[in-house]
Every structure is written in C-alpha cells, then in structure tokens.
Amino acid sequence: LTMIARATDGLPLSEGLDDGRDMKDADFYKQQAKQLFKNLSKGQYEASRMSIETGPYLFHYTIEGRVCYLTLCDRSYPKKLAFQYLEDLRNEFERANGSQIETAARPYAFIKFDAFIQKTKKLYLDTRTQRNISKLNDELYEVHQIMTRNVQEVLGVGEKLEQVSEMSSRLTSDTRIYAEKAKDLNRQALIRKYAPVAIVIGIVLMLFWVKNKIW
What we know:
The chain has 2 domains: 2-159, Beta-Lactamase, CATH 3.30.450; 166-214. It is an alpha+beta fold. A hairpin with a 2-residue loop joins strand 4 and strand 5 (67-74). The chain has helices spanning 26-41, 79-97, 114-125, 130-136, 151-214; strands spanning 2-6, 12-15, 49-54, 57-64, 67-74, 147-150. A 6-stranded mixed beta sheet has the order 2-1-5-4-3-6, sandwiched between helices. Its main location: endoplasmic reticulum. One of its GO terms (cellular component) is endoplasmic reticulum membrane. It is a single-pass type IV membrane protein. This is 25.3 kDa vesicle transport protein.
C-alpha cells in the first residue's frame, strides 16, 4: 500500500493501485492511512518522518514540503529501504507535479503517477538484490533516529482532540442557550414586578381622562 497526500489538508493525490488480494483487510488499512493524513494535516505531529505500528505491518511516512508520502510494509521489511523508496517517490513526484500540488482541487488528481509507483515498488520488493543490499549498506542514509509509535496512540491523539473540540462547541452552545433563558427569566421578573404598578397608573390616568371629559 502506497499513498500520497497533500500535507496541508490531507487531500489524497495519488495511490498505488494494487488490487489488495494479497493483503488481508486492505480497505481497513487504507482508512487508517486516510485518518493519519487527516491528523497530520492538523499539525498534530512535529516529526517529518515516522514509523507507525499497525497489526502485522508498519506505516512509514515522510513529509517534504507540502506533501506526505506513506507506505505500508511488513514489519520484517527493512526501514532503511522503506524510506529510500519514499524518497525516490518524492523526487519524481516533485519533479513531475510540483507546480500543481497547491492548485489540485479533487482527490487523486495525480492518479497517473501510479505507473511510477508500481515501477519503483518492483525495484524494492526483493531485499536481496545487489541494488538493495548496497542501499542497506549505505552509511550516508541512516534511519535510527526515526521514531516508531503505535497506530492507536497516534490516531487516539486526533480522536481526543476532536472530542475536546466537540465538548467545547457543546459548552459554547449550552452557554448561549443558558444566557438566552436568563434574559427571558429577567424579562418575566421585571414584568411581574412592575406590571401591577403600570396597571394602577393606567387606571388612574384613565379616571382622570374620563373625569375631564365629563366636566
């Protein structure tokens, strides 16, 4: 599973179009990926690169500029290769579509990029090729400092923030309703307090008016 999204709003831009038959619960992990994009677009994580544990897999993502590149791999797949794979995608995606990223208005506007994703993925599938062994031995590209977290922990941050937001909105709404009810009660209290006086004054004025008319 490989997905690319705009980091500022989580809009999916491209995706590796595998049929998912070789992966159990493919749709479930795609939904997790979209939720990750949503959370990342809210600026909840400072890390520009992270690995996230989910079931028997790991999400790896990197954010460069305005774009988040994400892939899902088996836990046994070398993290170093996963991030170099994402780096290859980033270089080509930026070269081919960099000027159109901000103006993209619909999901998967760059779905044709799938052809490059599939071609690059094939190069990284077999970790035993001389090419990939050389990349694993490349000391200039280190990933030891990349944080690894659990998906429930990561997604839970977004859920808690949404709950706080909902509670805040509900509290604001309740406060507004309470204020309106308080105004009504004050109005009713004033009416009860001054209505008898107003009635008496009205009757006196009417009597004076009638008396003047008679005399």
